[in-house]
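Newbie here. two chains, one complex. Structure please?
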Amino acid sequence: MATNPMQQFEVYRIGPQIKIAGVDLSFTNASLFMVLSAVAICAVLFLGTKEKKLIPDKFQLISEILYNFIAKMISDTAGSKAKPYFPFIFSLFMFVLFCNMFGMLPYSFTVTSHIIVTMLLAIFIFIAVTIIGFLKHGFGYLKLFVPSGVPVILLPLITVIEIISYLSRPLSLSVRLFANMLAGHTMLKVFGGFVVSLGILGGWLPLGFSVALTGLEILVAFLQAYVFAILTCIYLNDALNLHH
Amino acid sequence: MELEAAKMIGAGIAALSLAGAGIAIGNIFSSYLSAAMRNPSAAQKQFPNLLLGFALAEATGLFGLVIALIILFAF
């Protein structure tokens, strides 16, 4: 029986150990759940688009809702210029959402509760957005750090603050998702521990809390995927439509 | 002071940042509710913004929690 609320985040090897050039590339439970969520996404979307009916069935409805949701989010936040980036943001949102949701199943593993996963996604987004910005505007992209309408005396200070806030984007983007998942799952397991330690007489109260918290965590799992995608859109908006 | 005790106290102080997150979340929902009562027809449109603000405010508090965990387990 698990006695430590942190034990659920343990990464262990499944199958044989694979070592290539001193780097451990073995198949772990983290990789298993990443593969599972990728397969689940493909399955849902494949079933949804197999036969395109006028009156959609369940899977087609899910696919259409997801498509419209993301398409509307992109056009609302980043404008029509961001349309070519729809596949990227859609796959990003679906991957984070399915990883979070698979984590809500009992005895499963939450891929996004590890900072290495979210940090890699965030650094990829950061580098991609920076490259897109420089490709679209050339060195004019640096105007992002010099807001217009600021008094000249304040300008050096504001520029430094803008640069720091730009560079801290990958950190805040990744830590937000990682901390939410880590804190939520730890809290669920701590309350689960209270049920056991309070026994049959006092355990009902934390059990009820556990049920309520599970509902909250499902909301948070969806919300964090949404926030991750919408912040990517906002960063893309900065790179595509330079306002300053 | 013992290092272990200092670590525990530090982690506890770092977790205080959740108070700020609590105030922020309460503020967001109360402003949304009072605005929605004044103009219910515009409320639906601002619901995504409400969720975005909620998630952003909650995450700010959780940064403090991460600092607490770093103090407890990484040092």
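Moderator note: The mean pLDDT of chain A is 87. The beta strands of chain A are 19-20, 23-24. Thread marked as resolved.
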